[in-house]
User: Fold this.
Amino acid sequence: MSDMSGASGNSGNFKAFDSKFMGRPVQKSPEQKLRDVSDMYEKHFLREMMKAMRSTVHEGGFVQSNQAEKIFKEQLDDHYVEKWGERGGIGLSDMIYKQLMDKFGVMMGIKAPVAKPQGPLPFDAKSEYRAQPFQHPGKKQAVSYRIDVNRAETPGESQANKEPEAVKAPWDGVLLGKRALVDNQTMLEIEHDNGLKSQMVFKGGVSKVSTGQKLQAGDTLGFLSPEAKSLYWTVEPEAEPGPETVSE
Assistant:
């Protein structure tokens, strides 16, 4: 009876199970989940590449590979793929991760949304400009707009008397280059701090800005000519070579 009472008295002193048996699965961050998905796609690509390479090697002779040897080769290929992944892979995972981050980062709350641009022209309620999207030749990943001037002329007002509209930097960045084109047109390229790049083509001149100069959002880059009808603005995540767009 004493043993039983003793056991009953110590009922609250049972030793807890080791935490390794009761531990919860580690919750991965959204960034790590995107990284894991990127690595998974790269490894899948490498495995398919290994299969394609082995399919080009035809078996010959009297001895044919049995099922066990085929399984061993598949396991060996998996081992190679894992080792390649541990050493940094072939760069495909990084490319996929960047694309996923650009597409879903804001939605998942792990990437700050791009701030509203402060240019290249005003788009408030009283704006005289209207933007129309179009596909820039050779820039599939870019978003391009043709910004048309819709200002109604006042009776007696001439083109020369119109006050030129300032072309401004949409976001912070660095001026990559400026170039004079035909028909009094100008092309400007800016590398923004948010990872985007702008190309603007318009009829008009450039203000006192120089290549390599640090720009703040809203800084004046140039001025539209009074006879300018449109400004073309292309935004892309990375530099892509392609034909130039000219304004009217």
The longest strand covers residues 197-206. The chain has two domains: 25-57+65-113, 129-152+161-236. The two ends are 103 Å apart (CA to CA). Confidence is low (pLDDT under 50) at residues 240-248.
